[in-house]
Amino acid sequence: MSELFGDGPARDSRFVVKERWAEMHNAPEGDPIATQEFLHRQMNEEVNSIEISARNLVDFPDAPWELRMAMARQCWDEARHVDAFRRLFEKRGGTVGEFPVLNFQYRIVTNLSSLAGRLTVQNRSFEAAGIDAIKDGIATYGQAHAADFVELFEAQLADEVQHVRYANEWVKRLAHDGGARIAFEIARAVAQADAALKIVAGGALTTYPVSDDLRREAGFTDEEIDTVRSLAQRD
Ligand SMILES: [Fe+2]
Ligand SMILES: [Fe+2]
Q1: Which residues are within 5 Å of ligand 2 (an ion), measured at CB?
Q2: Which residues of 63-97 are buried (b: 16+ CB within 10 A; e: fewer)?
Q3: Between 120 and 1, whose confidence is greater?
Q4: Model's pTM, two decimal places?
Q5: Taking the domains of the chain in order of start, what are their residue ranges?
Q6: CA of 208 to the centre of ligand 1 (A)
Q7: Which CATH topology does 17-234 take?
């Protein structure tokens, strides 16, 4: 699309890949298809998360060992999430490839040139927003007594908090050690991802209530949580 996006990840012939939210199968809320479409879309997003972390390992071989271990563990966690979403989707009668998929996360994040920038956008932004969304999902599906959904979300949530937390720790360490150059790369990554996301979403960006407790557990300061909340309200 533009210099804001890298190449997409490979997908086999079962998948139809779209580039913008508006091209997806966006069923109205309450339609039974909407739930199936969500599970399928989320399954593919979890694949994106594996692919991004795996690319980080390949693209930044000189990153500190503990950070590389955290990214490798993330691949393992995300693989479990893919399986969990696929299982539930298929149990409810779904067929992989039934709906189109988006690979915007991979295309935005792997296009960023620094590891600090990638962790900031993928883990501290996309996945942190995911934490808010999962918490919202637990409440919604809990009210509907959908125990299989709640179980999936709770297992996923524990992992996602850890993904955000290690990124919070490491981005701060990388910024501390790398000084102004890393700070500049982080700021540029955020601006680039912001612009790219607007192209993908086209005004359809959904935000969920910011979860103070979980974000604190994931390593955000109170000041950072306030900033996220005021940005969400501004959009
Ligand atoms: Fe995940
Ligand atoms: Fe994750």
Answers
A1: 49, 127, 160, 163
A2: beeebeebbeebbebbeebbebbbebbeeeebeee
A3: 120
A4: 0.94
A5: 17-234
A6: 17
A7: Ferritin (1.20.1260)
